[in-house]
Specification:
204 residues, alpha+beta, 3-stranded antiparallel beta sheet
Length: 204
């Protein structure tokens, strides 16, 4: 038997090309593996942990906003001690209720002239009729009066009477109170003792 003919060796050029291609593929594969390792091996960044302070302030923000939107209650004003009351009874609008009077009846004032006119009326209505019954009747009557700041006569009472008849003094006090008012005194209401001198005409 004759020996089988040997196969011709592959061309050198083709063998080198295969090796180069294989080497390129290997390099690409290794490079891809390295890139994958690098990217997959990157440590994961830790997630930020919200601090208690931050969360508190963040959650407190809307609360503060809500609180700011709620209207504040009106301030409580301390009025201090109660003022001294200078009137008794009745509505405050009534000037006769004041019990602290600092006014005065000045000489020659309208108030004084008004009182003098009232004194003349008491003489005609109270003293002259009594004098007709007792021609010797005479004396002095003092009527305590309270006159309001607007001139209203609030009260009139006999404070003293040296006459032999009390009827003249009582009549005079009633007339003064019923007369209603005189021109307003200066400085507020007035407490005064109003003197009435009753003597027969021509014996002043």
């Amino acid at each position: 038997m004759s020996p089988a003919p040997s196969q011709p060796p592959p061309p050198a050029g083709n063998s080198n090309g295969m090796y180069i291609a294989l080497a390129v593929v290997l390099l690409l594969g290794i490079g891809g593996i390295v890139v994958w390792k690098v990217t997959s091996g990157t440590p994961e960044q830790p997630k930020p942990i919200a601090s208690t302070t931050g969360s508190t302030s963040a959650s407190a923000a809307p609360t503060n906003t809500l609180i700011d939107e709620v209207p504040l209650p009106p301030p409580v004003i301390d009025a201090g001690p109660a003022p001294t009351v200078q009137y008794t009874g009745g509505p405050a609008a009534d000037p006769c209720t004041y019990n602290v009077c600092n006014g005065n009846v000045a000489a020659g004032s309208d108030t004084e002239r008004g009182l003098q006119q009232l004194a003349m009326k008491t003489r005609r209505k109270c003293y002259d009729p009594a004098l007709g019954n007792d021609p010797t009747l005479q004396g002095h009557v003092k009527v305590h009066m309270k006159i309001a700041s607007n001139g209203q006569i609030c009260s009139a009472n006999v404070a003293s009477n040296d006459m032999s008849s009390s009827g003249v003094g009582d009549c005079a006090a009633r007339m003064l109170l019923a007369s209603g008012r005189v021109p307003a005194p200066k400085g507020g209401c007035v407490n005064l003792d109003f003197p009435l001198n009753y003597v027969p005409m021509g014996q002043h």
